Amino acid sequence: MNWFVRFYKSSPGKKIIMAVSGVIFFGFVFLHMYGNLKMFMGTELVEGLGVYKYKMDVYAEHLRTFGEPILTYGMLLWILRFVLVLSLVLHVTSAVQLWLMNNKARPQRYANALKSQVTTLFARTMYYTGPLLFLYIVYHILHFTTGDIHSSTHIEGQVYGNVYHAFQTWWIALIYVVAMVILGFHLQHALWSMLQTLGINNPKRNMWRKRFATAFTLIIVLGFIAVPIGIQTGIIPEPHYQPNSTVIAYHETGR
Amino acid sequence: MNVTLKVWRQKGPHQPGGFVEYKAESIIEDMSFLEMLDTVNEGLIAKGEEPIAFDNDCREGICGMCGLVINGIPHGPSKGTTTCELYMRHFSDGDTIVIEPWRSVAFPVMKDLIVDRSAFDRIVQAGGYISCKTGSAIEANTIPVPKPIADRSMDAATCIGCGACVAACPNGSAMLFTSAKIGHLSLLPQGKPERFNRAVHMIEAMESEKFGGCTNHGECEAACPKSISIDFIALVNREYMGAYWTADFE
Q: Are B93 and B1 in contact (CB under 8 A)?
């Protein structure tokens, strides 16, 4: 493991680790955004049971049964959680260490501040958007994954209902919209930066890197904020679960 | 034209410094920035004051000695030029011009506007060369080098080691300098045998000088008097990963 210690000690080593974990996060947020859009897709008839379920709830359940029978129930989700937590630990540790190192590189500041020529607002705010996103992730997991925050309407398994009820409160919807804008700031610089750090650079095609970053930033941010906005504006209808039941189903109408 | 200068004055290393204001009067527009400073210094010497100390040598943009942060921009507002290639016609009559030395932990201020850049020499000593017996020159074109590769290598080799990349970087990183010095050799067949050692050793030498790390702002490329691209930083990231993939280094 000596080689890993030596690799990690250097700044390119830490940056490469940040880029690789960044690629994992990029894949994760993109798929997460895709899954969230099931909120707009209403219900589907479950064959054999004769009941309708919200596609969002089916999707959430499917994440647990995915890969069966090779994987056991919930296994894929736990593997993903493990990979994501490990990536987050590495990403944050590297970022903090690089930040401390960069802070020491200019102990005597410019008396007359440097004038930025090409850097962007997105790049300059990475040090702020990163920690803010970390706080948001903690909040988000306590809210929707464990149900510890805003728990009065939280019912395990009723994902559609949980999301709907949470975003009925305007300021909770606003927190999520603002968090996604912060995510967008982070992604705009991160998505092309990870390519640069991984050496994916060809002067003839480099214009595509920033286009790729802008396009996917917009897709991800707009995809995410569509849900709280959809609920606030009433585009996403109120859920009708069977009373006194955690079963994610209701009969008859199948709207 | 007349301009007001706010110049960083500092008696010696580790001593407190500060801005001192000077009037530069009857300046000709076609004077270079350094000639303007010469004029001011002549006035100071005539008055029996200590002249402003600044580095310079060739005064034609190829030696890398001169380098001042002018109004917050290393080498001043003109793109792709060194301080000596900056002319007073880039300024207007009555302007106030703020002049400060490079700021980096690895570039200690020696006096006024002069910094010690020997940290760069130590990075080059760590691997910025090709080990071979020279002997007499071999037949030209014995080793084929594709034209685009030769051109890219030359682009990196235009680095004059002035340190503007470090001065411009919000993190005080020397990645552009180091990547230019690694890149111009590692692209060529003669530089290939030692490429992975070179990448790892020069990066490690850079780190031991306490330079910061790259966060892809691109300020270095904008300040570089030779307009060296941050594409070379990506190239060095590839070299660095290649070293660890192959484990072909010491």
A: yes
